[in-house]
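Data availability excerpt. The first of two example chains:
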Amino acid sequence: MDLRREQLADGVEKISLVGRMDSIGGHDIDNRFAAVVASRKLLAVVDMSEVSFLASIGIRTLVVNARAQSSHGGGMVLASPQPLVAEVLKMAGIDTIIPVYPDVDSAFSALMASSESR
């Protein structure tokens, strides 16, 4: 599992996850993802377009870090999940905890709008 970071406009960070968020990949990425997302106040778009599989350990990583970000006063949204991953997010109810958008641009716009209303 790989993690890539990119600065977007207005201080928003795009975090791209690449690979399978299964027991091996999820464990591999958990600490690195938490170090980026949960350690400070942040507005983050998590690009899921290159995540080919999402298991419960990956879901846990996303939820724990989204909640940590929320407690810091920041925000985290998910963008561009592949159809199988989007289905898992919906079936697990994660889309009610972490907003999910079809692409990075709409995720960025929604994140900016929500941060302005805080």
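And the second chain:
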Amino acid sequence: MRHLIQTTDLDKDEINIILNSAKNYLKDDVAQTLKGKMAITIFFENSTRTLSSFEIALKRLGASVVRLDVSKSSTAKGESISDTAANLNAMKPNAIIIRHKNAGAGDHLSKYVSCPIINGGDGAHAHPTQALLDLFTIQNHFKTTLEGKRIAIIGDIKNSRVANSNIELLGRYGMKITLVAPPHFLPKTDLPTTSDITSIIDSVDVLMSLRTQIERHDTQTYGSLKDYAHNFCITKELIRDKNIIILHPGPVNRNIDIEDEVLKDSRCKVLEQVTNGVAVRMAVMEHFILNH
């Protein structure tokens, strides 16, 4: 049984197939390939983009979607996540999409089901479909090999599942990655790091800003968000007229992660990422459900 828990669950050939399918879906070249199929979404953490994106993707392909309201489910009464998974599996879905605050939750669930588990984000561990849509967005912009292209990932990298998945995936496609963050936001890594965003701005092709993961901090690790923004917010003054693109997985902390004026800039691909996310998740769900 194949599951998508992290980006390493897919080889490059599979990734290329998925992203080629997503290109067709961007052109509205859609067939009801999942008609008669049913998927369950179970999100133990709040989500706007990812949850809606998966549900829209499935419905565009003709599948039905059952959203489990966690606040009203038996998990609120103390049912274990493994029992929840076994009971959902007994309803014979064709896939289960999960988000959970604990790293490894999707992998744990996979032991109790007979359908693909798709990880919609687990703790600070992985967010594979976000990395796929980020790769897709970068490829669509450059329309050439990404080998040697340079990306700076900026912000709360230590607590970011998006960063983890992108570091693995974009590195596999030959991108040169620099991590930009205050020292306490950096993980142990062999990648180049800096806490001075101005030192890399002239040498990168892509800036990927991340949200400060306040909910994952045991204690406040900076004086204020204003102090953080002074050093790490992407501003018009910083990017000037440079030939770069700007990404963010959302939700954006305006004027902390990215300045309002930059969000309006054509180089900012935040809304394009959202559009691409539906197409990529269509291709992912089709790949895993039809090849089950």
